[in-house]
Amino acid sequence: MKIYLLRHGQTEYNEQKRYQGTRDIPLSEKGRACLRQADLEPAEVYVSPLSRAVETAQILFPKAKLIPVTDLREMCFGVFEGRNYVEMEHDADYLAWVGEDCMGRCPGGESREEFSNRTCAAFEKLMECSLSRGCELLVILAHGGTQMAIMERYAWPKRDYYEWCAQNASGYVLCADAWDRKKRLDLVGEVSYAVDV
Length: 197
Hints:
The protein has seven helices and seven strands, in the order βααβαβααβαββαβ. By secondary structure, it is an alpha/beta fold. A seven-stranded mixed beta sheet has the order 3-2-4-1-6-7-5, with helices on both faces.
């Protein structure tokens, strides 16, 4: 089975380098204009319920049935959401979080471990369901954090969490041949559905 693990298109928050987290931020006008229809036509696409992921999936896969999965949503950054690092350069809570390599719990939000565990549990359910149904393709359209959590835990070759964040409207193609034996996904390649406008 092949897995496509994709990130949503660009939003105004992306352009302004703001933490979006679980805020329901739509694609920007530019973000919509930069998307092109994908070169594959899955029957189903599993999506984060946040509008930026749903909108991207509708453009990339116009014929697919979109199936929202709540636990594929982005990490909850709590009080940091809606702000960027420049606005928080003197915020004690933010500086403490960054000082812990962003591993601690965001005030009012999640820790990276909590987020990764939530995301990976949802992903494993999708994997098991898809494999049991004999699917040849699993397409997931979510967030940069979703990609990083899943890829850090399961992808081969191994890379650090932050090295797995793809650009907007981009992602990874993976092979699940080693999943049953090792819970491992082999990286086949990268893909982008973004165009210059």
